Amino acid sequence: METQQHIAILGSGNIGLALAKGLVKAQIFKPQQITLTRRNVTALADLEAEGYNVTGDNALAVSKADIVVLAILPQQLNKLLDEIQPTANKTKHLLISVVSGVSCQDIRNQLDLDVQVIRAMPNTAIAIGQSMTCIATDNASTENISLVKSLFDTVGVSIQINEELMTSATALCACGIAFFLRSIRAASQGGTEIGFHAHDALKMAAQTAKGAADLLLQLSSHPEQEIDKVTSPKGCTIAGLNEMEHNGFSSAMIKGIKMSAEKAGVLYKSE
Predict the structure, then answer these.
(1) How much is the pTM?
(2) What would the CATH number be for the domain defined by 7-162?
(3) Domain limits, the chain
(4) Strands (E), the chain
């Protein structure tokens, strides 16, 4: 599905670079069709050697692009939009924003331009092609939504949701990576306490978590259905589960996700 379009990724941090590499790996774009920007251009020297276009000039990058990806922190956004405003073109450009807590309308207001904007919220598993990416828009064409979905499908799984749920998606999917990592870390520490070497315990916990997730994804199963298969009467699994619940395991996860969603919603507004 190779394209002739040119894409500019403004803010080439972990997410931006992983997307660029995923698009090239999937043979949708060649490195020559991708421009990467960041303030410290020397950090992109290796990618420049691979054929990517590299610049510190965001406006220049936009002028050469058809698709523009905004991959920066919320507090950096207004300054960046002011920079690219002179070269942004409402008929030529499609904007993809991976900035949390910022609406499509916020971006158009700051640019003072009626441009098509699609929001995408990937997570850091994008680095290994396993992102869960949520996509939303308020004005983009069906064709452009399909295009953006196909771009992020190269680096994981993507779904379209209503825009008002994007902040919630940030908490569940983007912040969620850290929550599941912390639960795996806790399981590995439990493993060390009951006798395993730390590196063995971590490998065992991580693979067990991966198996649990794949049971749900591959069998389209429900967690409780799979839990019932492991919990025998008066057994050790139900004893462990109930002990965790008495100590607030599910409640802590739910409260943490709610807190992250609240915080994500005000990052841009409180700049």
Answers:
(1) 0.90
(2) 3.40.50.720
(3) 7-162, 176-264
(4) 7-10, 34-37, 53-55, 67-70, 94-97, 116-121, 131-137, 156-160
